[in-house]
Amino acid sequence: MPTRQASRALAKKPVVQVNLTLTSIMEEDLRKWVDRLAVPRHYELEHEENKNTALWIAAQFQSWGYQVQLQGPWWNVVALAREVSGPLVLVCAHYDSVGGCAGADDNASAVAAMLSCAKVCASTSRRPAVGFVSFNREEDGMLGSQDFVQWLDSSKVKTNCMHVLEMVGYASDLAGSQRVPPGLPVRVSDRGNFLALLANRGSYRTLDTLLAQASTYLPGFPVVGLRVTSAQEKFLPVLLRSDHAPFWHRHMPAILWTDTSELLVASVLAS
Fold first, then answer.
1. Domain count of the fold of the chain
2. Which residue from 248, 141, 151, 120 is spatially nearest to 133, judged by alpha carbons?
């Protein structure tokens, strides 16, 4: 299973406006949002906090002018720009946590990154064709994203590609801090300081674009891309452990963004 990495060879000429947009993303916002979200919020075990989290995320989107709805029985938070029509790119991150766990990385870090994207998109003079979804019940068999995929079939929302953010806030430069799941035929650094992007067949071209953009605008930041085939999905269930899986099962283009979560073994044990 070959991997591709961001590198100088993939870099393009940077666009000034993109650089300006990146500098507008504030670390203070990200930390503040993670702090707000990092409380136990499992759907069943901490139902009130789970509900409050959904309402808080919805309020953030509304404050930036998005049209927001709480979709389905599990309250997926869906935010769409009012004036954008046509196929959308969707940026997604689940907001529930494991019961009794604050879930700062899983998945407050990804929700904060998603909110940052939404805030930046809302501030542009011409909003890009991007929507945002925060799923519930990922920790319960991905019930929220499964329901959302079914809802898409009957809705008027058309999509191009889904970007699912799953734990993006933890890293370690320690040697031996990264491991590969048994049976997964990939070679990566033994330092858990990179972001991994997993793409299904319909999103290979998008993955290539993302690696080029990372090479251009974040030189030196380690990003690894993995093209996953349908056969690998079937025989390697470790690749299907987040909300991208319902999209892959429907053969819809989707990319998982992750810091590889508990595979950062040495740094987790040391912390």
1. 1
2. 151
CA distances from 264 to 147, 181, 193, 225 (A): 31, 11, 9, 17
Mean pLDDT of 227-254: 89
In degrees, rounded to 5, the angle at the alpha carbon of residue 171 between the alpha carbons of residues 249 and 168 is 35
Write the pLDDT tens digit of every residue in 127-147: 899 999 999 999 999 999 999
- Report d(CA 261, CA 169) in Å as an integer: 9
Q: Give which of 138, 121, 30, 32 is closest to 83, Cα–Cα.
A: 121
Backbone angles phi, psi at 207, to 5 degrees: -60, -45
Domain containing 183 — which CATH number?
A: 3.40.630.10
Q: Record the tokens describing residue 225, joined without a space.
A: 């891309």
* Assigned token pair, 219: 């030189």
Amino acid in position 158: K
Instruction: State if pTM tops 0.85.
Output: yes
Question: Strands 223-227 and 195-199: what pairing?
Answer: parallel
- Round to whole Å and give the CA distance between 53 and 56: 5
Q: Which residues share a beta bridge with 132? A: 79, 91
Q: Judge whether 93 and 33 are in contact, CB under 8 Å.
A: no
Owner of token pair 């073994």: 265
Residue with tokens 């919020």: 41
Residue 209 structural domain: 3-270
3-class DSSP state for residue 201? helix
